[in-house]
Prior knowledge:
single chain; 5 helices; about 150 residues
Amino acid sequence: xxxxxxxxxxxxxxxxxxxxxxxxxxxxxxxxxxxxxxxxxxxxxxxxxxxxxxxxxxxxxxxxxxxxxxxxxxxxxxxxxxxxxxxxxxxxxxxxxxxxxxxxxxxxxxxxxxxxxxxxxxxxxxxxxxxxxxxxxxxxxxxxxxxx
Length: 148
């Protein structure tokens, strides 16, 4: 059985150690999204107010979509189901939230600008990790890789 990558087929790590690293890495990567998404569900009204303050339309709908996106995307990646698609979805979500909520380029120099720049750079790093997952897939220890 060949594990060569095809345009639609999964790519796998080359050893059990690498597949284990992908499993642990997937879970570690999405903990922040699970926590943030569940927190949003506990205060959708507060999240909607924050979205409205940024001038975004339909804040309650967007708050609910944000919570669902974070929790569902994180769970899909954690179990390794539709990992590539979920990773791309969380890249888009993270880029959008960075643009609207960590827009350090619109702030005067100072502690708040520095804080938002750190958050923006952290989000860029997270997007890089999701991009790697989109490229490699979840590995053998995943729902996507079961039976391989």
